[in-house]
Specification:
By secondary structure, the chain is of the alpha/beta class. Helix content is 21%, strand content 29%.
Length: 403
């Protein structure tokens, strides 16, 4: 669909996800055993027939670039398709990207070169499935200058999101950034519209609004905080796209910007009938697959390796250990009598004989010593590792753990 040019904003620091973002930008953080977070936005694009995509990078982008170059060579340049990486270049000034709007403004040349009818702007750090063609259809039917995707949430969630105020016809009246007292939906005083960070613009409208925003000295160069309110003041036609299913129920969408949100979204995948289902063949989630051997489960004199309500990636070896309600990424080894419960174990982790782990996230290439425990004594764990607000233990990448 050549009338649409897509930008994916993938330069976020993700400071609230530390230590998972110490060595990588947030969209490059592993998720769900074999994926990176950005894979879900990219898969949505490909499944929606959108194949002119720029990925804007900035912060600690090396692993993200490696992943995209290795796993996302799925477009034909000869047919005018592309997934291209544009690093922050200080093209317009000596500044790095100041905000979401500034990231697009500094790459206006890319819009002018492609000459699209519409520009779709996405975040590279959310977990969801969306057919963007439905949003494009609504945008055209409304004759909108700009459309923002929204999802219904309880009023209590407003301090965590940008809140869109609408009228009964889905036109946007205002935008509030993480308000304590939000504007609620018409005739639904306990519900709000949370912005999903997905914006669809008419090209000429976007260019003119970015120029106006760039001239405003007090602007933070952000679409939600600045550009949308500016458009409303200028009487532009701004619409909200309601992200719901055929039963008018809000679809699954998670902003996994915090440690607990990241952990819970992983655990959501393990439900018997998960809202976010990775196994739907009609909407495949793509990623880069390294060549690993099949999973191997080994019996030992002390018992048989067992898996309960878990997801296990290729190359894993479970040697007499127990995996319960957990996600194991590729090339993980679980030794005899070890136990892993309610945890996310990333690539290359080795869990020693008799070690016990629960309610934890273990980043890549960590060796858990035999007989040690993580997640059982939080007073001890907080002296060695990072704890989330709910008590999930996070072990940083390549950490050295003493017995």
């Amino acid at each position: 669909m050549f009338e649409v040019l897509t930008f994916i904003l993938a330069g976020g620091r993700g400071e609230r996800l530390d230590p998972l973002t110490r060595d990588r930008t947030k969209p490059a953080v592993p998720f769900g055993g074999i994926y990176r977070i950005i894979d879900f936005t990219l898969s949505n694009c490909i499944n929606s027939g959108l194949r002119r995509i720029y990925v804007l990078t900035q912060y600690k982008s090396f692993s993200l670039q490696k992943h995209l170059l290795a796993g996302w060579d799925v477009c034909s340049n000869q047919l005018g398709e592309f997934i291209d990486i544009i690093p922050a270049q200080q093209r317009i000034s000596a500044d790095w990207y100041k905000g979401t709007a500034d990231a697009i403004y500094q790459n206006i040349y890319a819009i002018q070169d492609c000459d699209p009818e519409l520009v779709l702007i996405l975040s590279g750090d959310h977990i969801y499935k969306m057919d963007y063609q439905e949003m494009i259809r609504v945008h055209k039917e409304k004759g909108a200058d700009m459309t923002v995707a929204c999802v219904t949430m309880p009023k209590e969630e407003s301090p965590h999101f940008g809140i869109v105020e609408i009228d009964k016809n889905q036109y946007v009246l205002g935008f509030q950034e993480k308000p304590e007292k939000p504007k609620t939906l018409p005739k639904k005083p306990k519900q709000i519209y949370a912005s999903m960070g997905i914006y669809l613009f008419k090209r000429d409208v976007l260019l003119s609004e970015l120029e106006l925003d760039a001239q405003a000295s007090a602007s933070e160069r952000d679409f939600g905080k600045n550009v949308i309110p500016q458009m409303i003041r200028n009487k532009k036609k701004v619409c909200a796209y309601d992200f719901v299913d055929e039963n008018n129920k809000p679809k699954y969408w998670r902003d996994i910007g915090t440690r607990d949100a990241y952990y819970q979204a992983n655990m959501d995948l393990l439900e018997q009938n998960p809202e976010f289902n990775l196994f739907e063949r009609t909407w495949p989630m793509r990623t880069y697959h390294e060549q690993y051997p099949p999973i191997k489960i080994i019996s030992t004199p002390s018992g048989t390796g067992s898996l309960v309500d878990s997801m296990i990636a290729g190359g894993c070896v479970v040697e007499g250990g127990l995996i319960n309600h957990s996600i194991l990424s590729s090339n993980v080894k679980i030794h005899d009598k070890a136990e892993v419960k309610n945890s996310v174990i990333m690539e290359g982790v080795i869990v020693g004989k008799g070690a016990k782990i629960q309610n934890a996230i273990i980043d890549k290439e960590v060796t858990i010593p035999p007989g040690s425990s993580i997640g059982y004594d939080l007073d001890v764990d907080k002296e060695r590792f990072v704890l989330t607000a709910s008590g999930v233990v996070i072990v940083a990448k390549k950490s050295s753990i003493s017995t």
